[in-house]
Amino acid sequence: MDILIAGESWVTHSIHIKGFDTFTTSTYEEGVQWLKTALERAGHKVHFMPNHLVSREFPTSAAGLASYAVVMLSDCGSNNLLLHPDTFARSERTPNRLAAIRDYVAQGGALLMIGGYMTFQGIDGKARYHNTPVEDALPVIMQGTDDRVEIPEGKRPVSVKADHPVLRGIEGEWPVFLGYNRFTARQGSDVLLKIGNDPFLAVWGYGKGRSAAFASDCGPHWEPPEYLNWAYHDLFWAQLVHWLSRQS
């Protein structure tokens, strides 16, 4: 099936100071490869849309999104979706793509929001998904401010519903994570994983569709090598996608 992943890219612009002299370097990077590979190994066709293309190329309607079985937002701030170049640069009216995502789920689509510095509320609250139509479709209520929980010492999530199809066959302890976004589970949602007293993975049905909120990254830095190389890494993402798309 076809899966859209939006986000998970960035450009790093560095200033090098060598005494009197300075120079700059720029690098383009992506953090999608572990998730993308896991889904492709499960037989899915993954369409990756990096952040710099989202504002122009992300579909503008629920009908446009309907060709995807699952839509994933990962480290993709809401401004990327709200500010189409025609609106930002030319002051033209364009569809609200946050509403389009909500309607896509309500009409039978599937949405997964993956944590990071630019999802949920994110660093300094700049991701800004709280009180938006996307939040309506998710099984969680976000904080209104910076929602990061940094855990440099590492902490393990704990399974709450090990018999759920998303977690079936995953045995033993989960690896440690180095941080996550804090949110509250909605009434009627299922919390499958917790980290401390906070939900770590929550799922629910919205309208005719399904959605999930995964509190941490799909790659570094919150996901250390222990998780990326975990024996159940690929199985987890494959089963989550199967559940979201109603294949299980």
Describe, in plain words, how this protein is organized in 3D.
- The protein is of the alpha/beta class and 248 residues long.
- The chain has a single domain, classed as 3-Layer(aba) Sandwich (Rossmann fold), CATH 3.40.50.
- α1 (33-41) crosses α9.
- Helix content is 24%, strand content 33%.
- It has helices spanning 33-41, 51-57, 62-65, 78-82, 85-88, 97-106, 133-137, 225-228, 233-244, and strands spanning 2-7, 9-18, 21-30, 45-49, 70-74, 110-114, 140-142, 148-155, 158-159, 177-181, 183-185, 190-195, 198-206, 209-214.
- A hairpin with a 2-residue loop joins β2 (9-18) and β3.
- 43% of the residues are buried.
- The longest helix is centred in the C-terminal third of the chain and has 12 residues, at 233-244.
- It is built from 9 helices and 14 strands.
- It is globular, with a radius of gyration of 18 Å.
- The strands form 4 sheets. It has an 8-stranded mixed β-sheet with strand order 4-1-5-6-14-13-12-9, sandwiched between helices. A two-stranded antiparallel ribbon has the order 2-3. The chain has a two-stranded antiparallel sheet with strand order 7-11.
Helical fraction equals: 10-25%
- Termini Cα gap: 14 Å
Proportion of residues in extended strands: 25-35%
Shape designation: globular
Largest sheet geometry: 8 strands, mixed
CATH homologous superfamily annotation: Class I glutamine amidotransferase (GATase) domain
CATH topology: Rossmann fold
